[in-house]
C-alpha cells in the first residue's frame, strides 16, 4: 500500500455518503483549528481586528474592545441610506459619513496641484464628487449620497482606504 499524507482522509466504508460526511467533518475541524490559531494570533498582537479572505469566504475577528468601540458609530438612524452612517462625535452633534464603496487609494483632487473637490466648512450636494479612489489602475469617482456642510475630511489624499471606511463627515443643514 502506498504512503499517505498525514492530512489524507480515507473512507473506511465504501458508502460515498458516509465518506463525504467524514471529509466535511475533517474539513470543519481543520477550519476551526485555523480560526483558533488566528484568534490566538490576534490576542497576542497589538491589532484590534483581523480580516482574512480566501475566495468567496471572509472571516473577521475582533477583540472585545474593538467591538465595543465600533458599536456607537454603527448605530445608524432610519434615514441613513447605503454607505451612510450616523456618528455622534460630540454630545448633541449629529453627523453622517460618506463611506468608501471600494478599497483603493483615495485622492481628494482630480489631479496633482489642482484644488480638492471639498473643503472643510464647504457644502456638499447629493451626487457631488467627493474624491477619487484608484483601484486596479482605474480611477473611480466617489459621489456623495448626502447633502450638508463638510465638518471633517477623514481620508487623507494619496492614502489607502478600505471599503466602508468613512471618507467625509457631513452635518445636515
How would you describe this structure in keywords?
alpha+beta, elongated, four-stranded antiparallel beta sheet, five-stranded antiparallel beta sheet, 31% strand, 173 residues, 2 domains, 2 helices, OB fold (Dihydrolipoamide Acetyltransferase, E2P)
Q: What does the model show?
A:
The strands form three sheets. The chain has a five-stranded antiparallel β-sheet. It has a four-stranded antiparallel β-sheet with strand order 8-7-5-10, with no helix packed on it. With 173 residues, it is of the alpha+beta class. The protein contains two helices and eleven strands, in the order αββαβββββββββ. The chain folds into two domains: 1-74, no CATH class; 79-171, RNA polymerase II/Efflux pump adaptor protein, barrel-sandwich hybrid domain (OB fold (Dihydrolipoamide Acetyltransferase, E2P)), CATH 2.40.50.100.
Short description:
The chain is of the alpha+beta class and 173 residues long.
Query: What's the total number of strands?
Result: 11
Estimated share of beta-strand residues: 25-35%
Helix content: 10-25%
| Distance between the amino and carboxyl termini | 77 Å
List the helices and strands and how they pair.
Elements: H1 16-44, E1 49-54, E2 57-62, H2 64-74, E3 84-87, E4 95-99, E5 104-107, E6 123-124, E7 129-135, E8 138-143, E9 148-153, E10 160-161, E11 166-171
Antiparallel strand pairs: 1-2, 3-4, 4-11, 5-7, 5-10, 6-9, 7-8, 9-11
